[in-house]
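[recover] target loaded
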């Protein structure tokens, strides 16, 4: 789970306008931060299968957002991949 400050930092960095919380870029950035936090948790707690399932669901959701963004706006897709340092 991300803290309120980390979510606000992601909002400031990736939002399109002041009230943006639904754009694909923002959703991908937020999911990426959540995935990294959960992956660190699972390194310490390897038997936490409920969190592992949540992680897999988040990865799938992010993959679908990335496919949507790639299909609709390749320029934003490639810049976001570089900015988030995702290897696709």
């Amino acid at each position: 789970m991300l803290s309120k400050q980390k979510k606000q930092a992601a909002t400031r960095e990736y939002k399109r306008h002041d009230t943006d919380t639904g754009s694909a870029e923002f959703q991908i950035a937020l999911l990426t931060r959540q995935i990294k936090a959960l992956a660190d948790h699972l390194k310490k707690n390897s038997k936490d299968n409920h969190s592992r399932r949540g992680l897999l669901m988040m990865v799938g959701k992010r993959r679908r957002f990335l496919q949507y963004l790639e299909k609709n706006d390749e320029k934003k897709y490639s810049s976001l991949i570089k900015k988030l340092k995702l290897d696709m």
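[recover] notes: The first helix runs from residue 4 to 14.
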